[in-house]
Amino acid sequence: MAQAMALLRYSFFLSPSASHTLYLARRQYPLSSSLLLKRKTKPQISASSPSSMSNVASTDAAALTVFHLHNTLTKRKEPFRPTLEGKVGMYVCGITAYDLSHIGHARVSVVFDVLYRYLKHLKYEVIYVRNFTDVDDKIIARANELGEDPLTLSNRYCTEFQSDMAHLHCLTPTFEPRVSTHMSQIIHMIKQILVNGFAYSIDGDVYFSVDKYPSYGQLSGRRLEDNQPGQRVAVDSRKQNPADFALWKASKDGEPFWESPWGPGRPGWHIECSAMSATYLGHSFDIHGGGMDLVFPHHENEIAQSCAACKESNVNYWVHNGFVDVGSEKMSKSLGNFVTIRQVIEVYHPLALRLFLIGTHYRSTISYSIAQLEIASDRLYYIYQTICDCDNSLNQFNGENLKDYVPKYIVDCINKFLFDFEKSLADDLHTPIALASFSEPLKIINDLLHTRKGKKEHMRMESLMLLGNEIKDGLHILGLKPSSFSEALFQLREKALKRAELTEEQVLQKIEERSSARKAKLYEKSDVIRKELAAVGITLMDGADETSWRPAVPLHVQEQLPSAL
Question: Which stretches are annotated as coiled coil (predicted)?
Fold first, then answer.
């Protein structure tokens, strides 16, 4: 199974997804109309008679499939139906800001950014809320270690996180609330829970009484008797039930505090998200998301306290992404086995990290490894080089000279790409299959650009334009489209040189040495130079007039991959 998954990850740009093919009933495709044909447009399914594009471009491709999303609460995929037609409210639990974020945090953010982008692609008006926990035990402990004000420390790491997200092409949420600026809303909700009889106060602390909420455990499936005191909830002999959790904590010496009806203190962890989601989305909204580790106790407790504060409280879809593992362990700061986003993007392009993260279905565990990052970086270079070459060829032609049609096989390729791409994302955001759908259009572009047969192809430029535009649209939906393909290629080359611990001048010098060896018929020396560079991820490409280089998966990494590759 592991080998099969590795094969899938490696080949998602090499093997197209086998699905249905849609055919237009014309041998040629009107280019002028096709430029208006966006991914939301479904070609007619017909192969028997000619059909004009005016009849094709009016049908919605989204009608082919209904978006299904896995709901942790019901343990199944469900058709997505928001509470208000055309509008979606989504809340995602953000980071506790006391250190640089690791790639486990990156996965949560990228997963829900893809969901956010896809919902916008489906023309939903989305209010996306992602919070910052800037008041917490871990923040206070770290601040004390550094002799720093806790809020100053957390503010710095909130800013660092936002910088990381920009590098990963994560869109900025509609709102990014912080605990420290929402104390009045938190206190109000705690008061309401107390009034409704679901909580009790002791010596300045306020606890939620799980015994008063019979549905406790509905999200995680856990029973109260299964909970071990002290594992996930602090032991306190004053509690009515060991599983009761803090809504408000009385202040301790040297800790930040806020005034409340129960005395100075600060909120417990869980109440903040209930209060902030209600503030921006109301008590009933569509999607609540986060990592799988939040199912219990955080989201379980959120459901209990939100329903205790307002009986109409409801979340339609609870969505959780899988872990990032290192070896066989979940990556986490507490285990000390984490790799920060900064460490990765120091030597890999940020979008290579994004590609790695969406190369596995969001609910599956993903195993972090240098080999997988190398593969993602190589795939990204291939895509960007293909599109850059395509654009360069098109720039040499005057658009006014382009014809209005493309060959039918180009139409068929695009129809299949659009269908597979939409179908995979509609199936619970199956991004690996969406990525695989790029394979065939990319291959055809390269054939048109570089093969003898392709260069003679009828309406070659028209085909390149149409294929290139559709690929760019797909990359945009997945958050993989750079502002400049040529600049991204330059950055990928720079990162590869950094990993190889070489400068471009040194690589060019090696190329010159190899050329001299070949001219002198010293082929053994020539091969040694090529292999030395290949060993560190630099591959040489011999052209008619010169030798160039590009990043590649280093030889020692290739040896770690399944033999079938």
Answer: none
Q: Mean pLDDT score of the chain, rounded to an integer?
A: 87
DSSP state of 399: G
Q: How many CA atoms lie within 13 A of 34 on its CB side?
A: 25
pLDDT above 60: residue 313: yes
3-state secondary structure of 462: helix
pLDDT in tens, 344-389: 999 999 999 999 999 999 999 999 999 999 999 999 999 999 999 9
Between 131 and 21, the more confident residue is: 131
Extents of the domains making up the chain = 89-198+270-344, 347-488, 501-560
* Distance, CA of 170 to CA of 162 (rounded, Å): 9
Tell me, what DSSP letter sits at residue 225?
G
Dihedrals φ, ψ of 208, to 5°?
A: -85, 135
Look up residue 212 and give its two tokens. 């008063």
Angle (CA) 197 219 214, round 5°:
30
Q: Is the peptide bond before 297 cis (omega within 30 degrees of 0)?
A: yes
What letter would DSSP give residue 330? Answer: E
pLDDT higher than threshold 60 for residue 202 = yes
Residues 6+ apart with CB under 8 A from 6: 561, 562
Question: DSSP assignment, residue 17?
Answer: -
pLDDT per position as a tens digit, 92-142: 999 999 999 999 999 999 999 999 999 999 999 999 999 999 999 999 999
pLDDT above 70: residue 167: yes
Residue among 62, 65, 18, 20 nearest 45 (CA): 20
What pLDDT is stored for residue 286 in this prediction? 98
CA–CA distance, 511 with 517 (Å, rounded to integer): 10
- CATH of segment(s) 89-198+270-344: 3.40.50.620
CA distance 125 to 373: 34
pLDDT in tens, 429-440: 999 999 999 999
CA–CA distances in Å: residue 465 to residues 31, 42, 384, 457: 9, 19, 15, 14
* Tokens standing for residue 354: 């994004």
CATH T-level assignment (fold) for domain 347-488: Isoleucyl-tRNA Synthetase; Domain 1 (1.10.730)
Residue 27 per-residue DSSP state:
S
Cα(263)–Cα(250) distance, rounded to whole angstroms? 7
